[in-house]
UniProtKB/TrEMBL annotation:
Designated name of the protein: Arginine--tRNA ligase
Keywords: Aminoacyl-tRNA synthetase, ATP-binding, Ligase, Nucleotide-binding, Protein biosynthesis
Biological process annotations from GO: arginyl-tRNA aminoacylation
Family, as annotated: Belongs to the class-I aminoacyl-tRNA synthetase family.
Record's GO cellular component terms: cytoplasm
Enzyme Commission number, as recorded: 6.1.1.19
Boundaries of every DALR anticodon binding domain copy: 478-591
Reactions mediated catalytically: tRNA(Arg) + L-arginine + ATP = L-arginyl-tRNA(Arg) + AMP + diphosphate
Domain Arginyl tRNA synthetase N-terminal as annotated: residue spans: 21-101
Length: 591
């Protein structure tokens, strides 16, 4: 990968590579390691006093036929004699080279690049490494209540897209709502049996969520009774009408489906989420069956006990069923049609599916089948799984059980709490619209950061009280630090861009070093599809800034030191703003 995004590490990789090439040429030694590979070998020492970068020399031992500690000693001696910009000195510690930063030069370099916005427009990926990726996420079922547990997929998908775009990829944001299936047929049945339910004039989606929970209970009560067979016939008729796009049940489905979609659009708008393309299960239902039948006639699929599918046992994936013996399809059936739609764009190189962890085998079978059908993009595609969001006592949220507030209700509850606890004291100083907007932004920050601060493979227990705190590892804490930076600059003034930089304290050194590493974390977050890397980085940065601010006077310092510290405040503000933007979190200027 390109090495231009971290100036300090970039200089280290460059001078080490040049020195190793000189040695190899002088002694006719074959040396194949590239500059970017040396860059990727660099680590951060466990203690700041040991330097700001460390390079193990073990990888050079085979080529140069010398002990790693001897290579490290000779390199340290040669590198210390060279002219360097951001490196103050190089120490040899056993088989490691420890590099110390010239913090005055680093502060000058970073400040200038952040001020010009060049810092955030770096080339993080080479052209050959960039992809056009369809990222599919947020697959909510219509006719159900959307609760906080559904947010994880949406928030994770938004952040992954933001990181991939920041790194230089082209992204197609896709959502795939589940608007057909047994869950829809059940609620249509419940709305029409034994008689038609009376529709409310307002709050239709809230009511529909309640009806879904009641329908689920009604079906449990029917199990094993004499009426169960008759109800199954009703469900079959509902599904037939939905498949044929005609009949009274179909008309009711269209109306109630639109209620759900309107609510989804409102939620997406509130969270500043958007999609380039909306796929629907209902659109893939009939075409997917025809695809399977055609591929069966061509000999691609086979029959097994009346079911049509493909034997993937040689890849240890078992038999993948695409049509049941009764002719009905499965999720896998519709996903074959969907993946063909995605790859109809020849520029698309892969797709990322953000779906919960229970679907692992499903996607393994899907990708292998699509690859065998002639779609090489499927081999590069990824199932990015995530774990559940639970209540504070560890129980998964459920639309059936209605064991959590519907998302719209939760939003207003959180915004009311933020206004009461944090913003009411500004009444009279701020406009009502400023208070409302800030309450909204803090609520979004709390929800999104709470979903992203841990890796997607970790379960989350949602806590309204904990997530809304202005201290600790929370979104509002990061937003508060950004607002604090804005307040300092407003009260003391912006730094002079032509000032002489003078970094005198370790708190300043630690802060500017963390600031300089932003693009490294952003790139790793993009490559690994891990927004938690940026979330954790921002939390570390915020803590470092507060240590700096509490221990380093700004207003009363001598001129060069004051201007340097103001530059650090401004750089921190910009980094937190850009980092929160990658997470999809707004950064208020006052709190």
């Amino acid at each position: 990968m390109t090495t231009s995004h971290d100036p300090f590490k970039n200089e280290i990789a460059k001078i080490v590579y040049q020195e190793l090439m000189n040695i190899s040429q002088n002694f006719s030694i074959a040396f194949s390691l590239k500059e970017h590979e040396i860059y990727n070998l660099l680590t951060v020492p466990p203690d700041f006093s040991l330097g700001q970068a460390a390079l193990p020399c073990f990888p050079f031992a085979k080529s140069f036929k010398q002990a790693p500690n001897k290579i490290a000693s000779e390199l340290a001696e040669k590198l210390n004699k060279q002219n360097k910009l951001l490196i103050s000195k190089v120490n040899c510690v056993n088989a490691y080279l420890n590099f110390y930063c010239d913090f005055n030069e680093l502060a000058k370099n970073i400040s200038q690049n952040i001020n010009s916005k060049e810092f955030f427009n770096r080339k993080l990926l080479e052209d050959s490494e960039k992809d056009k990726i369809v990222v599919e996420y947020s697959q909510p079922n219509t006719h159900k209540a959307m609760h906080v547990g559904h947010l994880r997929c949406l928030v994770l998908g938004d952040a992954v897209c933001n990181l991939l775009e920041y790194a230089g990829n082209k992204i197609v944001r896709a959502t795939y709502p589940g608007d057909v299936g047994n869950h829809v047929a059940k609620i249509i049945w419940y709305l029409t049996h034994p008689t038609n339910k009376q529709f409310p004039a307002t709050d239709k989606t809230r009511w529909l969520g309640q009806m879904y929970a009641e329908a689920d209970e009604a079906f449990k009560a029917l199990k094993g009774t004499a009426n169960e067979v008759e109800v199954k016939k009703d469900i079959s008729e509902i599904l037939r009408q939905l498949n044929n796009s005609s009949g009274k049940y179909y008309e009711l489905w269209k109306e109630t489906r639109e209620w759900s979609l309107e609510e989804l659009r409102r939620i997406y708008s509130w969270l500043n989420s958007h999609f380039d393309v909306w796929y629907f299960e209902s659109e893939c239902e009939a075409p997917s069956k025809e695809i399977v039948k055609k591929k069966y006639e061509e000999g691609f699929f086979v029959k097994d006990n009346g079911a049509i599918g493909i034997d993937l046992s040689q890849w240890k994936l078992g038999f993948a069923m695409f049509l049941k013996s009764d002719g009905n399809g499965l999720y896998l059936t519709k996903d074959i049609d969907l993946i063909m739609r995605k790859f109809s764009d020849p520029e698309v190189t892969k797709s990322i599916y953000i779906v919960d962890s229970r679907q692992k085998l499903h996607f393994q079978q899907l990708f292998k089948t699509a690859e065998l059908m002639g779609y090489p993009q499927a081999a590069k595609s990824v199932h990015l799984s995530y774990e559940t969001v639970n209540t504070e006592d560890g129980k998964p949220f459920s639309s059936r059980q209605l064991n959590g507030l519907q998302l719209t209700d939760l939003r207003y509850k959180m915004e009311e709490k933020v206004t009461k606890d944090y913003l009411e004291r500004y009444r009279g100083q701020w406009t009502d619209s400023d208070i409302e907007l800030t309450a909204k932004n803090i609520t979004i920050g709390a929800l999104k950061y709470g979903m992203l601060r841990v890796d997607n493979t970790t379960q989350i227990n949602f806590s309204l009280e904990e997530w809304l705190k202005l201290d600790g590892d929370t979104g509002p804490y990061l937003q508060y630090v950004h607002a604090r930076c804005c307040s300092i600059l407003e009260k003391i003034g912006s730094p002079k861009q032509n000032s002489e930089f003078k970094v005198t304290e370790q708190y300043e050194q630690e802060l500017i070093f963390l600031i300089s590493r932003f693009n490294d974390f952003a790139l790793q977050g993009a490559v690994q599809n891990r927004p938690s890397l940026i979330a954790n980085y921002l939390y570390d940065l915020a803590k470092s800034f507060n240590r700096f601010y509490e221990n380093c006077s700004i207003k009363n310092a001598e001129e060069n030191i004051r201007e340097t510290r103001l530059c650090l405040v401004e750089c921190t503000k910009e980094i937190i703003f850009e980092g929160l933007k990658l997470l999809g979190i707004p950064a208020p200027h006052k709190m």
